[in-house]
Amino acid sequence: MISLRFRDPDLAPFSLAVVGRRRRVLELPLIVWLAVVWTLLWGNVSWANLLNGLIVAVVLCLVFPLPGVDLGLRLHPWGIARLVVHLLVDMYTSGVKVARQMFDDRPYRAAVVAVPLRCRGDLMLTATAVAVSNVPDGSVVEVRRSSATLFVHILEADEPEAAERARRSVRRMEELVVRAFGDRAEIARVSAEPDPRGGRR
User: Fold this and answer.
1) Three-class SS state of 81
2) Residue 201 and residue 106: Cα distance in Å, rounded?
3) C-alpha span between 176 and 187 (Å, rounded)
């Protein structure tokens, strides 16, 4: 008996369960990956090799099942679109700012800013760190998992409010990442968390 993902909320995305004497879960991305590896090992891309790879992958997953792991990843199409647009705009404007600094004779003072995040899950912490590092004028130099804090290097810290502006930018990125990939509890947290300075965002 086969149980598909949309009928079984306990299954991970893109997976199905084969129910017999023992319940086995087939994760489709893993099966496809194993089939690709099988085909590459043969060194000949053909339909026969790909089909054999799929059969071998299914047999391996049934005979040697892996423990189920739910990363907590949720896909929100509108949130993903907003995140992509924000990243593209941010990368463009930051690239222009970095290029301007390269041709400017005025010395700039850099700084490292600590930014505590609101969501403490490993997935959201890692995704936020990667998103922040993609922007040219800010890079993550350390991630402190115990306190869910990112330490971000900024290129322009001459003005007193530059550090707070960088913190707001990282928190904004965190919110966009959570709204793209987070669960309901994480989205509620970034929506309702009070601002560290005392007021609400």
Assistant:
1) helix
2) 35
3) 9
Q: How far is CA 69 from CA 72, 150, 151, in A?
A: 9, 26, 29
Residue pair 2/11 in contact (Cβ under 8 Å)? The answer is no
Phi/psi for 107 (5° steps) reads -70, 140
In degrees, rounded to 5, the angle at the alpha carbon of residue 116 between the alpha carbons of residues 111 and 122 is 115
Select from 8, 20, 120, 131 the least CA-distant residue to 68: 8
Query: What averages of pLDDT result for each successive group of 10 residues across the chain (201 residues)?
Result: 52 67 74 86 84 90 71 78 90 80 75 88 86 79 88 79 86 91 86 54 42
pTM value? 0.62
Residue 40 identity: L
- Report phi then psi at 112, rounded to 5: -115, 125
